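Hi R.,

Here's the chain you asked about this morning:
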Amino acid sequence: MKRRQFIVLLSNATIAWPLAVRAQQKLPRRVGVLSQDLQPGLLETFRSELHKFGYVEGKDISIELRNAAGRNDRLPALAEELLRLKVDVIVAVNTPAVQAAKKATKTNCSRANRRPLYLLNSR
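And the predicted structure, written out as tokens:
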């Protein structure tokens, strides 16, 4: 192999290497949290529990919080917004949030829009 060909090959490999490594890195999972009225400290508790299982916000997961601030009429739109953001899972904090998320996932019934739905007990 001639020197010039070797240099071109080596420079192409150095350019391609970071791209290949980046393609192998996992993207953080997106967790949507839907709440009618988020209680103080509940989100911090949720984060600390995730941390106990080895999940680090910003590294392994990202949390998309949608809080209706006591206005139940806002919950359906917030649930739809979480679906548009393509979160991997929706965690509903209370019964009105569960109902809104359940309805939103049923009306967007395509396979691509189905998301697991979990209830987070606020006690």
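Helices lie at 3-24, 42-52, 75-84, 95-107.

Let me know if you need anything else.
M.
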